[in-house]
């Protein structure tokens, strides 16, 4: 699945992720075997296995591998099987999740990005992904509840619709904060009507835009 001359770069990336605290062997295996260069413009493919975020057009980015690995590892700690992803983007995080959980439901507000991501899922023979063009703030209520929700853009506050779609015992991984202010990665768990939140650390994401579907 990987470009032949990229094997050493992939190996270095995985080693770097391990040094930065990624311990889940399945997450590392999937990232090593997911061809990140297919999820970005060809002009940037030479940077695909660097630990950096890169532009994918429409003002959006593909997250750095460390962030994808971190958010996925946090999700996997809770044995999630039915996952809602908010912000399909290039589809890279989607593809990683699809190889680790039973079903991924992914919402993207930019139609051209969603179309490209669908094509990549077919190319990689990943058929347990359903995609929706819509407002990520509203989630995908008809497919819930979800035992895992992962949000790949920063929300100004935690969307209530997403909280409502989280199963009892479920976990949501979400960056919270305004675009030009500090943002935090938050792990939220739902226990009945009670919510537990844990702040993991500072992050930097593009904003989770509300209502503006294009």
TrEMBL record:
<dbReference type="GO" id="GO:0032259">
    <property type="term" value="P:methylation"/>
</dbReference>
<feature type="active site">
    <location>
        <position position="63"/>
    </location>
</feature>
<dbReference type="Pfam" id="PF01135">
    <property type="entry name" value="PCMT"/>
</dbReference>
<comment type="function">
    <text>Catalyzes the methyl esterification of L-isoaspartyl residues in peptides and proteins that result from spontaneous decomposition of normal L-aspartyl and L-asparaginyl residues. It plays a role in the repair and/or degradation of damaged proteins.</text>
</comment>
<keyword id="KW-0963">Cytoplasm</keyword>
<keyword id="KW-0949">S-adenosyl-L-methionine</keyword>
<keyword id="KW-0489">Methyltransferase</keyword>
<dbReference type="InterPro" id="IPR029063">
    <property type="entry name" value="SAM-dependent_MTases_sf"/>
</dbReference>
<dbReference type="GO" id="GO:0005737">
    <property type="term" value="C:cytoplasm"/>
</dbReference>
<comment type="similarity">
    <text>Belongs to the methyltransferase superfamily. L-isoaspartyl/D-aspartyl protein methyltransferase family.</text>
</comment>
<keyword id="KW-0808">Transferase</keyword>
<dbReference type="GO" id="GO:0004719">
    <property type="term" value="F:protein-L-isoaspartate (D-aspartate) O-methyltransferase activity"/>
</dbReference>
<dbReference type="GO" id="GO:0030091">
    <property type="term" value="P:protein repair"/>
</dbReference>
<protein>
    <recommendedName>
        <fullName>Protein-L-isoaspartate O-methyltransferase</fullName>
        <ecNumber>2.1.1.77</ecNumber>
    </recommendedName>
</protein>
<dbReference type="InterPro" id="IPR000682">
    <property type="entry name" value="PCMT"/>
</dbReference>
């Amino acid at each position: 699945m990987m470009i032949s001359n990229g094997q050493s770069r992939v190996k270095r990336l995985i080693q770097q992720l391990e040094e930065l605290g990624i311990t889940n062997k399945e997450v590392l295996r999937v990232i090593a075997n997911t061809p990140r260069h297919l999820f970005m413009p060809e002009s940037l493919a030479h940077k695909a296995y660097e630990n950096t975020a890169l532009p994918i057009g429409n003002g959006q980015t593909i997250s750095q591998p460390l962030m994808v690995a971190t958010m996925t590892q946090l999700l996997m700690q809770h044995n999630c099987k039915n996952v809602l992803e908010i912000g399909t983007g290039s589809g890279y995080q989607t593809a990683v999740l699809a190889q680790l959980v039973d079903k991924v439901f992914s919402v993207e507000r930019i139609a051209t990005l969603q179309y490209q991501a669908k094509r990549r899922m077919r190319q990689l023979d990943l058929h347990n992904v359903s995609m929706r063009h819509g407002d990520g703030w509203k989630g995908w209520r008809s497919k819930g509840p979800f035992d895992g929700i992962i949000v790949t853009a920063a929300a100004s506050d935690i969307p209530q619709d997403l909280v409502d779609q989280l199963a009892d015992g479920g976990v949501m991984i979400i960056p919270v904060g305004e675009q030009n202010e500090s943002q935090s990665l938050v792990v939220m768990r739902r226990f009945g009507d009670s919510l537990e939140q844990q702040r993991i650390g500072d992050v930097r994401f593009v904003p989770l835009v509300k209502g503006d579907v294009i």
